[in-house]
Amino acid sequence: MLINSRWKMIALLTTFSAGTLAAFSAADRVASSGLELVEVRKIWDQAPHNAFTDLVRFQERWYCVFREGQAHVSYDGALRVITSRDGQTWESAALFTSPRSDLRDAKISVTPAGELMLSGAEALHDKSKHTHQSLAWFSKDGRTWSDRHPIGEPDFWLWRVTWHKGQAYGLGYGCRQDQSVRLYTSQDGKRFDVLVPRLHDAGYPNESSLVFAGDTAYCLLRRDGRPRSGLLGIAQAPYTQWEWKDLGATIGGPAMIQLPDGRLLAAVRLYDQKVRTSLCWIDPQAGRLTEALALPSGGDTSYAGLVWHDGLLWVSYYSTHEGKTNIYLAKVKVHSLATDR
Known about the structure:
- The protein has one helix at residues 337-340; strands at residues 2-3, 21-22, 31-32, 35-44, 49-58, 61-69, 78-84, 91-96, 101-110, 116-124, 132-139, 149-151, 156-158, 162-164, 167-174, 181-186, 192-200, 205-213, 216-223, 231-236, 242-246, 251-258, 264-270, 276-283, 288-294, 302-309, 312-319, 326-334.
- The strands form six sheets. Strands 2, 3, 4, 26, 27 and 28 form a six-stranded antiparallel β-sheet that branches. A five-stranded mixed β-sheet has the order 1-25-24-23-22, with no helix packed on it. Strands 13, 14, 15, 16 and 17 form a five-stranded antiparallel β-sheet that branches.
- The protein has one domain (2-9, 28-340): Neuraminidase (6 Propeller).
- It is mainly β.
- A hairpin with a 7-residue loop joins strand 10 and strand 11 (132-139).
């Protein structure tokens, strides 16, 4: 179930200018349920619609990836890679386009071989045979990239790749008649095999995020059918048997991370009251999602990337609360359990 923050959210009245840090006084910072918003800045707004982010730290640099296009859904979708040394000044490192498809929902990870792996999916213009194909590109420096590699199966959107003990895992969801999710695994990020052919099939499950803690896997799963509430899945190696817990809340764009102290934290779009991107605690034992911190956001928003670095949680996300759909980067301080009590 969704539990609203026990602290009243402070209205964020700061107006952001492009590329300019939104400075908050100590009194204006949101501190709720152990999370404190340190700063947030707009880092990209060059396309008419900039959305669906992910974030990674690689070779002492930041890499943020996202989709550019005319609209949330449009024929011209392209995947942009931007990079920064300090998280403040950003520049384009690569742009991926396709004349035959709308490229969507970029995700980025670091492979065991020490390369960046950019993944996403193409929504094909010609849908006579297939509607979607998942893709991946690889780079040793973030600027020079391989040719595209089709991954997974046609019409099963391999949403996000997570590496664990030298192996890649990812959930693919059906884009046509089969509205189920299946679990894939790969040794190299190029050839994916089906580990669990029907992982879940109730309520049209789709977007997902995996976290591995030792031999335990956690899966945060969005659903858009009936029931529409998100799920938390738990499994032990070899991850073929899963237990699912209903979170009792509708979520979008799920991303999840395990903090150094072992707690699970997620970034999701919440739909109750005002639509927003929020950071939420995940209680795996109770199967509970608790809202902790609403980021400056609204309208078309969510799809975060999460990285723990230098004692802070770095969060990339997109939002339309300033009138245009832009990419933002937030830094969040996480208070210790002792401080929370």
